[in-house]
Specification:
5-stranded mixed sheet, DNA polymerase, domain 1, single chain, alpha+beta, 4 domains
C-alpha cells in the first residue's frame, strides 16, 4: 500500500527579479547598500512566501520542477532504470497500482542527492514500503532484480504482455485467451473469436507498438490543422500528451480540438459531419476504433497513416473535443504526466477544491464515500496558468511536468 507522503526538506519558490535600487553618487556605497537591501528584500519576500505556502504543500510533486533530465547524473541512476523497467512491465499487464507505486518511488529517487543503498534508507523515504525497499537494496547490491528477470523470461508473463499489447485487449481478455490455450498472435488470428478492433490490433500489432518520432507527430498534426482551417478557421488544434511535454517520441497522437464560444457538442458535430469523413477520403484516417454518438461524445479514437508513404505505418490517433471555455483545465489534463496531475488533483482536494478536465471548482460537498452531492461553483477553467495560481503552485511549463 502506498504510504502517505512525509515532509521533505522545504524548497524555496522561484522569486521574481528585484527592482533596481536608486542611483547613488558614491559607487562603492551604492554596491554595499545594494547588497544589504537586496538581502533584506529577499529575506522579507521569502518569509512572506513561506507564510503563504504551508510546509505540507511543499511536499507535493507539482510544487517542484521535473524536467526528466536528472537521471543520468543521479547517484541512483541504475536503480531508477531498473525500477522503470519494472513499472513498464506492470503497465503492460494492467497492474495500475503497482505501476503507480514504482513511478512514485522513481520520482522520489530522482530528488535524492546521495545513493540509497540499504533497505532502511529506502524505507525512510515517502511512498516506499517494505517490499519496494527490499527491491531497491537488491538492485544496489546485485545490479539486477530477480522479479524483472522472471517477468522477462517466464512464458506466461511473456505471452500475457504480448496479448496485452493488442489494441482493445485488457487483462481479463488476455488471461482468458491464455487459459483457452492460445499461444501466439497468429493462433489468435486463425482461431479466436475477435472483435473488429482486436483484429485490427493484431494485424497492425507492430505498427501500434512503434514509437512515433516527434517530427512525425507534427506532420500528423499539420494534416488535421490544414483541413480544419478550410472547414472553420476559428477551430484550433493543439498537440497534447507527451509531445507537449517535449518528448522525443510518443506512443500515440493526441489532438485537442477547441474553439472559442463553441460547446463540446458543436465541436463533435463538426468533426463527425465534415472533418472525419474528409480525412477518410484523403486516405489519412484508416479506421475508427471508438466512436461516440454525434454531438455527445468528447473524443474519437482511430488509426491513421501519413499519405504518399511507400510503407505506411498505422498510428493511433485521438481527437479530444474541448470547449474554448475549458481549454485551460483540459490542457493540464491532456498534458500529464499522470503523477503530476494526480499531485495537482490531490492538492486541490486538500484545499477543499476539485480539479478535473473541465475546470477547478470549489464548494463541492461529498458523502463519506467521496461521492459528490453537488457540482460546486467554477473558479477557473479557461486559463491554465490561473489554475496553478489559485492552487498556490508555481507555474510549471509542460516540459517541467515529467515526474
Amino acid at each position: 500500500m502506498i504510504k502517505q507522503t512525509r515532509v521533505e526538506k522545504e524548497l524555496p519558490l522561484d522569486q521574481s527579479d528585484e527592482e533596481d535600487l536608486d542611483t547613488a553618487s558614491n559607487i562603492e556605497e551604492a554596491h554595499s547598500n545594494s547588497d544589504s537591501e537586496t538581502e533584506k528584500r529577499k529575506k522579507a519576500r521569502k518569509k512572506k512566501r513561506s507564510n503563504e505556502i504551508p510546509q505540507w504543500q511543499e511536499t507535493f510533486s507539482c510544487m517542484h520542477k521535473h524536467d526528466g533530465h536528472t537521471d543520468e547524473n543521479n547517484p541512483n541512476a541504475q536503480t531508477i532504470e531498473i525500477l522503470q523497467k519494472m513499472s513498464d512491465y506492470y503497465d503492460r499487464v494492467s497492474d495500475e497500482w503497482r505501476a503507480l507505486a514504482y513511478r512514485k518511488a522513481i520520482s522520489i529517487l530522482r530528488k535524492q542527492k546521495e545513493k540509497i543503498v540499504t533497505k532502511e534508507q529506502a524505507l525512510a523515504m515517502p511512498f516506499i514500503g517494505e517490499r519496494l525497499a527490499a527491491k531497491i537494496e537488491e538492485i544496489v547490491w546485485t545490479n539486477r532484480l530477480r522479479r524483472l528477470e522472471e517477468a522477462s523470461t517466464e512464458p506466461h508473463d511473456v505471452l500475457l504482455s504480448q496479448f496485452l499489447n493488442i489494441y482493445g485487449v485488457g487483462f481479463t481478455q488476455a488471461s482468458k485467451w491464455i487459459q483457452q490455450g492460445y499461444q501466439s498472435l497468429e493462433d489468435l488470428k486463425a482461431r479466436a473469436c475477435l472483435t473488429k478492433n482486436q483484429r485490427i490490433g493484431i494485424e497492425h500489432y507492430d505498427d501500434f507498438l512503434q514509437r512515433i518520432p516527434r517530427a512525425e507527430v507534427e506532420a500528423h498534426g499539420a494534416i488535421v490543422k490544414e483541413l480544419l482551417f478550410k472547414v472553420d478557421p476559428a477551430v484550433k488544434v493543439i498537440i497534447g500528451g507527451s509531445y507537449r511535454r517535449g518528448a522525443a517520441s510518443s506512443g500515440d497522437i493526441d489532438l485537442i480540438i477547441t474553439k472559442d464560444g463553441a460547446s463540446q457538442a458543436d465541436i463533435c458535430a463538426l468533426m463527425t459531419d465534415e472533418v472525419i469523413p474528409a480525412l477518410f477520403q484523403q486516405n489519412y484516417l484508416q479506421a475508427s476504433l471508438a466512436v461516440g454518438n454525434r454531438g455527445e461524445s468528447s473524443k474519437w479514437h482511430g488509426a491513421c497513416a501519413l499519405p504518399r508513404s511507400k510503407s505506411p505505418v498505422w498510428r493511433r490517433i485521438d481527437f479530444l473535443y474541448v470547449p474554448g471555455d475549458e481549454i485551460g483545465a483540459a490542457l493540464i489534463y491532456f498534458t500529464g504526466n499522470d503523477i503530476f496531475n494526480r499531485s495537482l488533483r490531490l492538492l486541490a482536494s486538500k484545499k477543499g477544491m476539485c480539479l478535473n478536465q473541465r475546470g477547478l471548482f470549489a464548494g463541492i460537498l461529498r458523502r463519506e464515500n467521496r461521492v459528490k452531492l453537488n457540482r460546486g461553483h467554477l473558479l477557473e477553467s479557461r486559463d491554465e496558468k490561473r489554475i496553478f495560481e489559485i492552487l498556490g503552485v508555481p507555474w510549471r511549463p509542460p516540459n517541467h511536468r515529467i515526474c
